[in-house]
Amino acid sequence: MAVVLRVLKTLRNHWKKTVFFSGVSVWGVTYIKGKYEEEGIRREFCERARKYGTRPLYEGQKLRRVTVFLNPVANQRDSRKLFEKNAEPILHLAGLEVSVVKTEFEGQAKLYMDVIEDTDAIVVAGGDGTLLEVVTGLLRRKDQDVAAQIPIGVLPVGKTNSFVRSLFEDHKSNVRWICNAAMSIVEGLTKPMDVMYIKGEGDKTAYAVTGLQWGTFRDAEIKKKKYWYFGPLKHKCTYLIKTMTDWPPVIKAKLTYTNPCDGCSKCYQHLPEQKPTRSWWQFFMPQRQVTPSPPTRDFSKVVNEECGVEYSRDVSATEVTVLTRLARKSKDCKGLEITLGSAEISKTDFIKEGWRRSTMEQPHSGDKNDDKFEFLQVGEFKLVPEVAEGEESWFTIDSEQYEAMPIEVKLLKDKVKVFCQQ
Predict the structure, then answer these.
(1) Phi/psi of residue 339, each to 5°?
(2) In this structure, which of 94, 202, 214, 334 has its CB flanked by the most CB atoms within 10 Å?
């Protein structure tokens, strides 16, 4: 009993040291516990992958070939470590033939898409920008329809992983999130994905999978990086400062759009079946027959008078945001969804909306229950921004920055295939 009393007396007399070392001890225990749980997650997924890797190959059957495009500077240069520690062991244990291409400069992945061949899947180990390069490079090829059949896997090892959040919702643990994405490549289940075809001035084109953002909320999200010295309050301080410097935050443009169409005699195109090329020795081996599923409706007999009819309007708003169905997580959306923020927004409402978005994982668009935002569903549109001479204005397309210019945007439904969870 006397020993206990002496210990308590010592702790009371040195309470500052007691508090400090107690905090360090709690942090240490939490850190070790987290690392142990992460190792358990990796072990779980490696065991699942090993079951695929131990399956015997049939005569003439080859290993699945996967080409990984790794952006080593993504996520403040942590992407390589995250890939090698979490995803790469799963791919190798599953018996995949893995080729890793480490990009060295911006746009390199896009250039590789022109010459890539003899691969069963493309894996993007990076952020939204790397994915944008891969999809754009694939769909710029002359054999676009053939290239689009190569399934794409996305590993969330970048700084911005907006697209992957729409595919894999279980991302509370970063390790489990990456392992889930890697395991989806092993299991081979795919789903079709919409793509936004964006054509700018001249021959500037891009293919986006998430969306486009233009306006004051977009500018605030970009500028908050400069206010790092506010620490955890930088999100809130950004919107406060925005109301003191750039006000009113109004952008103007000319918008021409058509309503979305599910398919009719005007827009339906029958694509001829493309026969895969085979080497001479493959004719002596059994061929896996893949029968394309026929369309459920005969669109050549469907009449839609609204299809292709253009509507025009002048836009005066705080923001213009365009999202795909996957990014919006809406099954009711038939096409692209345009959000127009009211130009009459007050400073108080602007700050409240900015603070609301700062707590969201994907702060792309306004609240549908808020009457300060207008929502349009369109099939394709043209946007002509009004930018005063000498001023700068920028779009954000899949987390990448592009100078604002007149653009034409078209929805390509189910254009590419991506790996997803079962």
Answers:
(1) -110, 130
(2) 94
Task: Considering only residues 252 and 30, tell me which one the structure prediction assigns the higher pLDDT.
Answer: 252
Residues 6 or more apart in contact with residue 46 via CB below 8 angstroms: 89, 90, 93
pLDDT at residue 192 tops 50: yes
Q: Considering only CA atoms, which of 76, 77, 126 is closest in space to residue 100?
A: 126
The packing angle between helices 2-13 and 15-53, to 10°, is 100
Q: At what angle do helices 347-358 and 216-223 cross, to 10 degrees?
A: 60
Give the E-state strand segments of 103-144 in sequence order: 121-126
Question: Which pTM was predicted?
Answer: 0.78
Contacts of 39 (CB under 8 A, 6+ apart): none
In the predicted model, what is the mean pLDDT of the chain? Answer: 81
Please give the structure tokens belonging to residue 379.
Answer: 């099939």
pLDDT digits (tens, 9 = 90+) for 11-43: 566 666 666 666 767 777 777 877 878 888 889
CA pair distance 192, 190, nearest whole angstrom: 7
Paired residues of 168 in beta bridges = none
Tokens of 182: 């890697």
- Chain centre to alpha carbon of residue 227: 25
| Element holding 343 (H helix, E strand) | none
First CA to last CA across the chain, in angstroms? 60
> How far from chain centre, in Å, is Cα 167?
9
Lowest mean pLDDT, pick from 90-104, 105-119, 274-288: 274-288
Burial 225-249 (b: 16+ CB within 10 A, else e): eebeeeeeebbbebbbbbbeeeeeb
CA dist list (Å): 202 to 36, 141, 406 = 54, 18, 10
Residue among 344, 422, 355, 367 nearest 184 (CA): 422
pLDDT at 399: 82
Dihedral over alpha carbons 153, 156, 158, 160 (to 10 degrees): 100
Distances in Å between the Cα of 34 and the Cα atoms of 31, 42, 172 are 5, 12, 12
Contact predicate 375/328, CB 8 Å: no
Q: Which of 198, 220, 195, 197 is nearest to 209 (CA)?
A: 195
Residue 144, pLDDT above cutoff 50: yes
